[in-house]
Each structure stands twice: as structure tokens, then as C-alpha cells.
Write a structure and sequence with these properties.
Pfam families: Carboxyl_trans (PF01039)
GO molecular function, one term: transferase activity
Helix content: 25-40%
CATH superfamily of the largest domain: 2-enoyl-CoA Hydratase, Chain A, domain 1
Shape: elongated
Protein name: Methylmalonyl-CoA carboxyltransferase
Keywords: Transferase
Organism: Tumebacillus flagellatus
Length: 513
């Protein structure tokens, strides 16, 4: 028995070494950790249990019959984060550059299947050169097997991708289907075709970092949701994100202890200017309202005219959607519509209540916006809010104009509670634009058009630039003192916690993608 056990230990040690000391040193020289080191950093200490360490490839072409790939270039298993079970796979760049082959994919899919059966999140640490060319179409089939599970398990268990090296070609589509993508600044890239292929086909010259680095994918394309400077910071961010999420779609998000308070905040009336044209940072409002000012923003550098992210009220996780007056006056465009719609749908999948802070001038006008399909993209927001059955509350801070008023979770598309500050303005459009249309004839025929226009604008503001017309029609449930915003949200979430709402039976809806 001792001999057999010694053999087991020797085999396991060989697998744990991956590509060997030389390749591990090369990985460290690039400022990167190994797959196993990353798993240890991600999980609670001593909780990782490995799956299928002895799986081997069965390829024979191109010298593969003589090639060893310890662990098949990927480490899979389960462990705990903050005491809760998660499943994880980490590609090992020291073994064939982390390239994906048939059995490499099998290890990943077995891990994903076990995560889905047991209702726990799955986290992928990606660091791979792409498909294992020596295995031909078998490697492509492996990608397909992973993509299929990403789609089937979407909305069942949280799926998180962490890009910690290159991720190119077909390999990018698995992270793209998952719920959230993290990237390490300077060390990770995502692209379909690399710089050399682009130069060959189009003549364009660009570096891998400028083509698909973390900064590009976060701020320009919106592909990734979170970035940070080091691998340690990124993995800590993953742990933080999971603290807001349930294990699966059948559970409620985890509550944490929060010290009781009266929900009254004097500072709120100082943050938001009464003048509707003056800008402010909506994050200042959010941080005053949520527990401990703790707000984890998602895609913070993409579509900056909208802010989305996770926080807590009275210890309960919530999803926040807000217009950002600091950028584009908080108006909605193509990118912000996509950003908001996808975040809404994630929260609805996993029972996270939605709180919307509204201060919106409307949908951004422009030829480019129209030609790129603002109609289709804006409709995604309407669809996502209407479809969602989680508790939904809206706080109108100032402007709520036109179709954007409806798109930002109005009563008409399913909001459970809508409150407005006294500074709220709910109207078809701003007073200046409305006066020019409604009183066009009177203004043009006036002896003093400028004076008449000013008088009509003032008249319109007096009648319509307030929350009380909408409140009289039942579109607003109450007009509240800004200082009691936190308490109103806390009370609203308490009564909505037992909300039950169903939709007509159907296979699935057809969101305007």
C-alpha cells in the first residue's frame, strides 16, 4: 500500500508542476502567477479540492503521441469564497500555452456541469494561446461544448470570467457569454483576430494592447466589466462581487449585518443643485444612500452617462441604475442603453432588487445615433425593465423628460414604487423646447418675440416643471424630502420582499438585440 501511495504522490506532484520549473519561472518573469497560485489567491485558504488531475489527451498527430501535458493544461475543482462553495477552472499557460484541446475542454465542462447541478457559481481563469492546433477540429468541438454550457446555464448560476493573459479567436466567446468579465491591466488581451492578421488583411498596424487590452475593452468596446492593476487586486474584486450575489437563481442574495440607522441624511440636499442645468456626480448621491457608502460600480469607464452597480440597503444587496449628469447631461445613448439593459437582466436573473435614480434629459439626438440604431438599443431598456419581476423602485431627482422618463423604470412599464424629490420635473420635454413648439404662433406674432418666449417658458415651468402633475395622475407614488431617501428605499424594499409576479407562459421573449 505504501508503494502505491508513493506512486500516487509522485503522479500528483508531476501534475502540480505543470510545464515544469523553467516554464513556471518564465510565467513569473512576465509578472504573472501560475494557475494554481491564482486559485489559492482566489479561494479561502485551504479549501480547494481538485477534479480530474490525471486526465490526459489522446491526440497522436504532429508528435502529440510523445508529448506530455500534465493536467491537460487546465486545473479544475471547487473551493470556498467567504465560506460559500464555488467551482473554478484555471488554464495553465505553462502547459502548451494553456491551449485548449479535447480533454482540456472535457475537464472544464465537467466542472461546469457539477457547478450547475449543485447550484454554485463557476469562475474561469483564462490564460490561453487559443485552440490546440495539433488536435484539429476536436479542439473546436471543445469550444462548442463550453459555449453551449455557458448559454444553457446562463441565469441559473453566476458565471464569471477572469482574463489573465491572452484570450484570442474563438476563445473570447465563452467569456462574452458569461455574466461578468475581469481583466488585468497590461497583462491581458481579448480579440477575435490578432494584430498580425489585421495587418495582413487590412494593412492596419496596431499593438495587441491597443487592439484588445484591458483599457480598450473596458472603456471603448464595453466588453469587460472590471479591470485592475494586479492579479491580486482583480481576484479580490471577484471575491467582492460574489458577496453581492446568490449562489443560484433559486436563492436570495446574501444579507450581511448592517448597523440600524434612521435613514435621514442632511447632506443629500447639498449635493444635487436645484437648477436643472447644473451638473453633479450621481455617485455622491448613491454613496450617501447605500450602506456604508459601499458601491461596486460595473463598467465604470464605459458609457459614463449611465452608472450601474451593486450596493446594499439594510444589509440586503441591490442593483443600482442611475443617470450621470456629469456626462452628456445624463442623456441616454446607444452604449448606455446596452449597459443598463444587460445589468437589469442580470439582476432579474438572480433576484437582486433594482433601484433607479433618474435625472435624464432624454435620448441623445444625432445622425450617428439614429443611423447606428438608437431605436433598437433604447428598446432594450424598455424590454428589460418590463420583463423584470424583481422589486423595482425609482427615485426621480430632477429631470424626467420624454421617452427616457418611461425607459428609466416608469410605473407604466412595471415600477412597483416611484418617488420624486420636490425638484423633479416630469414632462414630455424641457420648458424651453416645449414653449417654442406649443406657443410658436404667439411668439412669432408677438411685438417682442424674446420677451414673449421668456414669459411662455416661465408659464410652462410653473404648470408642468414639477412632480405634482405626474403625481396627480398616479405616475408618482409620493413626493419625498430628499433627506429621507434612504429610509423610503429601505421601507419600500421591506414591503416588496414578498413580491410575486408572473408573466404569460412562453418559450422566451424576443428582445430587440
Amino acid at each position: 500500500m505504501e508503494k502505491k501511495i508513493m506512486e500516487l504522490h509522485d503522479r500528483r506532484r508531476k501534475v502540480e508542476l505543470g510545464g515544469g520549473d523553467k516554464r513556471i519561472a518564465a510565467q513569473h518573469a512576465k509578472g504573472k502567477y501560475t494557475a494554481r497560485e491564482r486559485i489559492e489567491m482566489l479561494l479561502d485558504e485551504g479549501t480547494f479540492r481538485e477534479l480530474n488531475p490525471f486526465i490526459e489527451h489522446r491526440a497522436t498527430h504532429f508528435g502529440m503521441d510523445k508529448a506530455e501535458a500534465p493536467g491537460e493544461g487546465v486545473v479544475t475543482g471547487w473551493g470556498k469564497i467567504n465560506g460559500r462553495i464555488v467551482y473554478v477552472f484555471a488554464q495553465d499557460f505553462t502547459v502548451f500555452g494553456g491551449a485548449l484541446g479535447e480533454m482540456h475542454a472535457l475537464k472544464i465542462t465537467k466542472c461546469m456541469d457539477l457547478a450547475a447541478k449543485n447550484g454554485a457559481p463557476v469562475i474561469g481563469l483564462n490564460d490561453s494561446g487559443g485552440a490546440r492546433i495539433q488536435e484539429g477540429v476536436a479542439s473546436l468541438d471543445g469550444y462548442g461544448q463550453i459555449f453551449y454550457r455557458n448559454a444553457i446555464y446562463s441565469g441559473v448560476i453566476p458565471q464569471i470570467s477572469v482574463i489573465m493573459g491572452p484570450c484570442a479567436g474563438g476563445a473570447v466567446y465563452s467569456p462574452a457569454i458569461t455574466d461578468f468579465i475581469f481583466m488585468v491591466e497590461g497583462n491581458s488581451q481579448m480579440f477575435i483576430t490578432g494584430p498580425k492578421v489585421i495587418e495582413t488583411v487590412t494593412g492596419e498596424k496596431i499593438t495587441a494592447e491597443n487592439l484588445g487590452g484591458a483599457r480598450v475593452q473596458e472603456a471603448i468596446s464595453g466588453v469587460t466589466h472590471f479591470t485592475n492593476k494586479t492579479e491580486e487586486d482583480v481576484l479580490n474584486d471577484v471575491r467582492r462581487l460574489l458577496s453581492f450575489l446568490p449562489q443560484n437563481n433559486m436563492e436570495e442574495p446574501p444579507r450581511v449585518f448592517n448597523k440600524p440607522d434612521d435613514g435621514w441624511d442632511e447632506q443629500l440636499i447639498e449635493i444635487v443643485p436645484v437648477e436643472p442645468t447644473k451638473a453633479y456626480d450621481i455617485r455622491d448621491v448613491i454613496q450617501r444612500v447605500v450602506d456604508g457608502g459601499d458601491f461596486m460600480e460595473v463598467q465604470k469607464n464605459f458609457a459614463k452617462n449611465a452608472v450601474v452597480g451593486f450596493a446594499r440597503i439594510d444589509g440586503h444587496p441591490i442593483g443600482i441604475i442611475a443617470n450621470q449628469p456629469k456626462f452628456m447631461a445624463g442623456g441616454l445613448d446607444i452604449d448606455s442603453s446596452d449597459k443598463i439593459a444587460r445589468f437589469i437582466r442580470f439582476c432579474d436573473c438572480f433576484n437582486v432588487p433594482l433601484i433607479t435614480f433618474e435625472d435624464v434629459t432624454g435620448f441623445i439626438p444625432g445622425v450617428m445615433q439614429e443611423h447606428r440604431g438608437i431605436i433598437r438599443h433604447g428598446a432594450k431598456m424598455l424590454y428589460a425593465y418590463s420583463e423584470a419581476t424583481v422589486p423595482k423602485m425609482t427615485i426621480i431627482l430632477r429631470k424626467a423628460f420624454g421617452g427616457a422618463f418611461v425607459a428609466m423604470n416608469a410605473k407604466s412599464i412595471g415600477a412597483d414604487l416611484v418617488y420624486s424629490w420636490p425638484t423633479g420635473e416630469v414632462a414630455v420635454m424641457g420648458a424651453e423646447g416645449a414653449a417654442n413648439i406649443v406657443f410658436a404662433k404667439e411668439i412669432s406674432e408677438s411685438v417682442d418675440p424674446n420677451a414673449t418666449r421668456a414669459a411662455k417658458i416661465a408659464e410652462y415651468k410653473e404648470k408642468f416643471s414639477n412632480p405634482y402633475v405626474a403625481a396627480a395622475l398616479g405616475m408618482i407614488d409620493d413626493v419625498i424630502d430628499p433627506r429621507e431617501t434612504r429610509q423610503k428605499i429601505k421601507e419600500g424594499l421591506e414591503i416588496l420582499r414578498t413580491k410575486r409576479e408572473t408573466r404569460p407562459p412562453k418559450k422566451h421573449g424576443n428582445i430587440p438585440l
